[in-house]
Design goal:
This protein is of the alpha+beta class and 280 residues long. It has eight helices and 14 strands.
């Protein structure tokens, strides 16, 4: 028997769980972290705080109450045991969780961070939820049902990617810090070919901006599923196109090869040709 589809009601259940964790575990710690509450993981660019760990514990517990039998794969859990990612393509229902996306911003008091969760069935992303704890609203997508901003009063705003424009007019977010050393000067040297390229240091807000039509593209050198699974679906349901650097489609089980998201395939190809060498 195939699993039941993931519904809009299910997405709203997840959204409320994320908001509750933000109110309880994240926002009370924002701009209120002691030195010992901020730690490095793999490098000085890879941080974890008490808020990340506490929020992940709370969200996982609440998701398992609401969706008995589901798997919960959180960023902080995987950092302790990478085997948690194994078998993702076989699970009837799994949630991929980033309890505080944009931890560097959060740790330095910059209000540009989010909470992200993706629902995955048999390796396919069927739901994406991104909470902005500061504005207190969500970007949500359900596979085949579109993408929208959900507000506390129940009102919604449809999300739609920006219209395609020539390469020289494109604005985007470029996260290049995890590129191989030899590719960094190539990509950064090619950025003047677009109109603007910044790095928000936050996938949650990057995807909200691109899905909402405020940026044309995003370029990411890392494909960790907690950074992309929810946003990929939101961007896709908003009409966008995403592929790995080699042109292959994105799936949350993929663990290598960067990602480019654009308004359409033609825009993606223009960005790929402009920013990367052919063999990358």
């Amino acid at each position: 028997m195939s699993p039941m589809p993931f519904s809009k009601a299910d997405a709203l259940t997840v959204a409320e769980i994320l908001r509750s964790a933000a109110k309880t575990e994240i926002l009370p710690r924002f701009r209120n972290l002691s030195a010992g509450a901020i730690r490095t993981k793999t490098s000085q660019l890879d941080l974890v705080t008490d808020a990340d760990e506490a929020a992940e514990r709370m969200i996982e517990a609440e998701l398992l109450k609401a969706f008995p039998g589901a798997r919960v794969i959180g960023e902080e859990g995987v950092s302790r045991d990478a085997r948690l990612l194994d078998g993702l393509d076989e699970a009837d229902l799994a949630f991929i969780l980033d309890p505080v996306d944009g931890t560097m911003n959060f740790a330095c008091g910059l209000p540009l961070f989010g909470v992200m969760a993706a629902a995955v069935m048999k390796g396919e992303i069927v739901g994406g939820i991104i909470l902005d704890p500061i504005s207190d609203d969500w970007a949500i997508a359900v596979r085949g049902e579109g993408a929208w901003i959900q507000r506390l009063d129940g009102s919604t705003i449809p999300l739609r990617v920006a219209p395609a424009v020539p390469l020289a007019e494109m604005t985007g977010n470029v996260s290049w810090r995890y590129l191989p050393k030899e590719l960094r000067p190539v990509v950064t040297g090619n950025l003047p070919q677009v109109a603007m390229a910044a790095d928000l240091r936050c996938s949650a807000h990057t995807y909200r901006q691109t899905a909402g039509g405020h940026l044309h593209f995003s370029f990411s050198s890392s494909v960790m599923p907690w950074d992309h699974a929810a946003g990929w679906l939101i961007h896709r349901e908003a009409g966008g196109y995403t592929a790995h650097f080699d042109g292959s489609p994105y799936r949350p089980v993929n663990r290598g090869g960067g990602l480019i998201s654009a308004p359409d395939e033609e825009s993606w190809q223009a960005l790929r040709n402009a920013l990367l060498p052919p063999q990358a």
